[in-house]
## 1
Amino acid sequence: MYDRTIASILQNDFSSDFSKHKSYNNYVRLFQLYDQLKNKQQEELSKDTIFRSILDTIETGIILLKKEQEEWSIFLMNDYFSNHFTIPKVSKWNYLNNHIPALCSIIEAAHFKEMKTTLQIRIDQQDTQTYMLQTSKSQTFGQTYYIIMLDSIQKVVEKKEKEAWINLMKVISHELLNSLTPIQSLSQNLNELVQQDYLSKEDLEDIRMSVATMLNRSNHLQEFVDSYRRLAMLPSPNKEKVVLADLVQSSINIMQPLFKARRIKITNTIDFKRWIWVDKNQMEQVIINLLTNSMYALDENEKKEITIRVEVKDKRVYLIIADTGIGIDSAIEDKIFLPFFTTRKEGAGIGLTLSKNIVEAHGGYLAFKKENNQTVFTVCLFES
């Protein structure tokens, strides 16, 4: 009995039940060990099932390789990878190499080292797609594992575009309903009033106020539509050679009266001349929009400072505008460049969106980050 129990443990065979065996009392500690290892195995199997289920729900192709002596074998392949590339869940690396040589050749050429790159893969007779390939290596308990992750760039872009459209439609729907709902209500009220044979002074006053409100909301909708049109019909930049320091100072001069009224200290540290190739009017609008954004962010702060500086790296110019404001809430960080999104009641919500579009039309980018309790916006442009 002792030998049988030890043999079962060594072979990971926990299918037996020794609790009712006549020799149980003679080997109580041994059977307790057996039951403990049995429970541990069931727990590990449950965890393995859960982890595999999680991997199978992820819409990213994942393969886990395991190194055995000097050869690699497929330890795990999630459902997405198997279904997307129409490959059965095989265990041989050579079989995978026959089906997706473009993937395997890159990994073999890198000698199974960690990497992050893109590659082209064609599945059956479909169009060639671009994928982001990311790999990593891990060692545990003397075993070496190699993790491969594949993401379709087209799918990622489509997902981001869909999310952007959904968020945009939410904002537009909200804005339209804010105006159309009161207009509809007031229209119904006016319709009831004009059905009367006699109108009192109070009725006339109601009509006057209703018409004024409807006109106000109609004007707001007109402004909203005009803002959308400005975004959708942004003209191509009419570029010319401009001194960045002069452009920044000109924008500061325009905003100076507002800064003075709000007691905002602005520090411009640009002390050298750099030529940039931009549309002067459009880029001035970007700087004014960013300064305006910083100005409102400082409303509730005692320390009101805006700092402007420039960095030049690799033939690129980085215009950096930082303020000591309350910062951007992490909950809305992914929405600040969304058209018509604003946290201010009087804001139109197109300043940052328009600025981003203008900078991108110049071949650069607009980004922001939190740095030393400050909100920092960076405009990246090519040096002329």
Note: The chain has a mean pLDDT of 81.
## 2
Amino acid sequence: MSDGLRPALPSRVLVLNSGSSSVKYQLLDMRDERRLAVGLVERIGEQTSRLKHTPLLGGGEPRERTGPIADHKAALEAVAEELAADGLGLDSPELAAIGHRVVHGGKHFTEPTVVDDAVLAEIERLIPVAPLHNPANLTGIRTAQALRPDLPQVAVFDTAFHTTMPESAARYAIDVETADAHRIRRYGFHGTSHAYVSRATAKLLGKDPSEVNVIVLHLGNGASASAVRGGKCVDTSMGLTPLEGLVMGTRSGDMDPAVIFHLMRVGGMSADEIDTLLNKKSGLIGLCGDNDMREIRRRIDEGDEQARLAFDIYIHRLKKYIGAYYAVLGRVDAVAFTAGVGENAAPVREAAVAGLEELGLAVDGELNAARGDGPRLISPEYARVAVAVVPTDEELEIATQTYALVGKNS
């Protein structure tokens, strides 16, 4: 990671993930990829705002502050105060850059990018295809720029890892002129997670990423799958927006688009109502009223048939994507489960692989049930395809890409 970087380059990177009403942050020392502090500001703009800060240098105790935090500027100023209290302030000469998660980079941004006025303008131009995320990401960048105008601000895009998809995977089968005029294509999301996990899976197998074909299953409240051939994404389940693909916590995933016309014409629903339905009232919560997989499994154990059906629909879609991406890749070396559900829900992993023995996939019951913090194999030794649990680390991926770019430009 540090090859080619000047020895004088400061070693710390602050990673910011700015949501519409929250800011997640981590401060890392890239000499050894050690976390120095982590935290979360939530409910920004409300009277009940909360900042939870955990210093990790020297074993400090977590701290909380509650009360109104008016906006992102106030939130980042509060974060800076907490870091300064630990001797890690934003004015530190050890801070090399601030790395920002940006959800949508379109076709234009294929790699991490130092932010300037042109970059900000392009991120803003993409707001129509990421109306919930890009405005908040922009606010975080602009606020950080105001606090440290002398420091490189680096945008790391969720979509960038998926820009290697061939046109045959990225294009929708609609009129080309209409698609191009409105930038309608499949972009994919969770790219920093898919990049990190595919590379970590190769390492787990003792191989270079260029030698490995991996199906990555990022299963959280938002969920996506990707087919990664030799370290490059060749297909992914999310599309123009994060709505396409797998069944998610509150999102429908794949669906006949004519359902929308039906709801408009027959159900009398507006475009905004349908948008809310498909993004916030569908998926697991729409099917059974819960979007927490732990609660769904508890209900299944108690004989709840509605929860069982929701789980079965979730698994059915997941299994279809495993099979589809097996076909796309032709040869699969590993299937990697990651994110909140993927890392912690053993029944999901077992059910997703069940019945795919002819494809070389199997799960060892004991290995699957065992808890672990790091990457681990859960497939039996005889399995032709490795099945792995690989904890994702999007913040480290953002910090790594940020530091590499700043070092290259220094």
Note: Confidence is low (pLDDT under 50) at residues 1-6.
## 3
Amino acid sequence: MAQLRQEVDPGEAGLDAKALDRLDQHFAHYVDEGRLPGYLVAVARGGRVAHLTTHGRRDIAAGLPVEADTLWRIYSMTKPVTSVAALILVEEGRLSLDDPVARHLPAFADPQVYESGSGSEVRTRPAAQVPLIRHLLTHTAGLTFAFYHQHPVDALYREAGLDSAVLPGSDLAGTVDAYARLPLQFEPGTEWNYSVATNVLGRVIEVVSGQPLDVFIAERVLGPLGMTDAGFCVTDEQAPRLSELYGETEAGGIEPIAGLPLHGRPRFLSGSGGMVASAYDVHRFMELLRRRGELDGVRLLSPGTVDLMTRNQLPGGADLRAFGSRPAHDEPGNDGIGFGLGVSVVIDPERTQAPSGLGTFGWSGVATTTFWVDPGRDLTVQFMTQVRPKSSLRLFPDLKRLVHEAVTD
């Protein structure tokens, strides 16, 4: 087991120690007020960790503290890992970004696109463009999530039993087939809608590689990078280090809630949100991307592929807020933010909600975890906690502002 450690004083890394103290105090207040159980924050420059703080509890009832080796459900931070796995297959020539999804998953042949109506009155038409692998990576395939409650196709997902993005009792193959039976919200490649697309991508990886998703990712990504605690389940030895998961109450407090079934290999392997990891694991993954595909002499991707992954791929070069016909996307936090192949990317720092460098990329998870890489400042940042908010817990703009204030060169 490897553990994240501070490697250099903040001043040596061009960071202001007093500003970092303000950052720690800011988030400690959330713990003191009962809005967070505890957290870990790490800031590195040039690959060296210059600030590492743990505070509060990973399990409030048991009185167990957050520690550097605590394990976290990273939920949607799984998506960039799955995206890297897919890009490995692209570089090997076993998969192409311009492959039709149906070449590997025949259930996606002859897709239908929503035209009008709702419920049993939904009308569709044949898609003019078939979904491609690149559409899965960029969330432009026309897929959706059942929990949006914003579009008639969202409702069809719920009617199909996909409320939590998995068909009850099914595995990845069966669930992805269920997605394929439903209409697309829009013509592939024309809009952006954050969706179950990375689960479909995970199934493509299984078919192309001939291996279960967890095995392929372990052998081709986690193992080579030394991400020794990351995976789709926890062992008996790891289990005591797993943080409890909390949900935000109506009153603004937190209470324990059920999380991913991580004890034992899950039947449904979610490339969209199924992984657990330590801060050390996340640091190693960020380093792979910061170093453009290589870490400690191990190269997983070429620099050009990482550059493509971390460049805006949205139609017309637009930002996320441009696709605001669905209220979930029409948020100030999406101003100036584009999307690459599995990660968000800052395309207009002047329009972003919080200070951000041009080309900064990363992603977050629903339990209030996040990471980003700022190539211009040679900076990587991660924040880990375990709270699924209802709506009011919006920590990341403050985190970005406070980190930005700490950079002195």
Note: The first helix runs from residue 17 to 32.
## 4
Amino acid sequence: MLKWKRLLVSLMALSLVGMLAACGGGGKPGGANGETAGAGNASGAGGDGQIKLRMMWWGSQERHEATLAALELYTKNHPNITFEPEYSGMDGYLDKLSTQAAAKNAPDIIQLDPGWAPDWAGRNQLSPLDSVDVAKIDPKLLAGGQKDGTQYAVPLGSVAFGLIYDKAALDKLGIKNPENGWTWDEFFALAKEFKGKLPSGQYFTKDYAANYFMYSAYQYSKGKGTVISDDGKFNVDQESFLEWTKRFEELRKEGLVPPADVNSSDKEFDPQMDLMVAGKILFRYSFSNNYGAWDSLKPGAYALVTMPRAEEAGGWLKPSMYLAVSENSKYKEEAEKFIDWFVNDPEAAAILKTSRGLPVNKDNAAALEESMSEVDKVGMGLLRATEQDGQTWTAGPGGWTNYIDKDWPLVHDQLSFNKITPEEAFEQLKEAALAYE
């Protein structure tokens, strides 16, 4: 299955940076209890027994607000525990976290992409979570956070990978909305339907010519397996890759995807820089739990649909993200108790809702579904539709982060700027993979 791999970047290559900036919406990092995030030790305690836990995560404004509210509740119930939150968008998150880890100053509690967890545990950067109750969590979701039978990271939610689109714009243009189970042929045919109908400066979708995740969905749907094999080998199917990149080359020539400079300016969830929120694109990939974040930026405008398919489904289910405790934390026991509460407590679940996907605790998930808002039901619809025959996520082999995060974007940019051909792009990716095999 798809290697949703975003493993740890090379620590030696990073220079020391400050704490994470505020989220893209313009808010500043702040504490749930009046604390202000800033440089300092991994955690702190005063002589009065007060303990301050640093917690770091990425996400949308909706996730930030829900998380801060949960931290406030925890402090209310545990007055000796306060928090120093550090939060941002996804861009640059891993680099900043890696920098702090290299300086042995990682936060006590860290949010990890599922693809990073094996490498962090393998480098002994995470503390075992022996006391976290995982009895009501699906073992398939737990597996990616384990090493040698020990749980080092706990999943927070289950999400589906699909597409979000500007339903209001399609309705205004009189174009039929896509339906779950649609195909890639229908996807590209729909793009052509917009030709001549879009106003200047508006496009069908982003230029995904060599986007690792979108192409992975395409190759998987073709029944050609994963882009990187389980044993760590280059496995890009040449026929599928050329077919995909040439289709986007055609969309580029017809003005149905943004010019390269516009395409590269996109910043997800940023009210000004997100190309879909700005009305510049009509389709982009999304996870089921992110619907509420986009809806909050433009209420009622968007809808979700399954990732297009071919011989097999294109979308997949995966753990949304993990929480872990840094091995360098001075307060591992307190941090672990907090994670247990964050994952299993019904009051926490009522605050967090689906900001990180459908809760992994089965009882909390069932209770949430009973009182789910109309917005959350949209995300749930994508999850349920993908469950039917969607792909199963796997962390895959280690050591390929730079290949995914650096080599693929480099090739993509060259394609987007028409500097290389699809054939040359394939050869570049194949050659670059040699350094990781």
Note: Residues 162 and 307 are 4 Å apart (CA to CA).
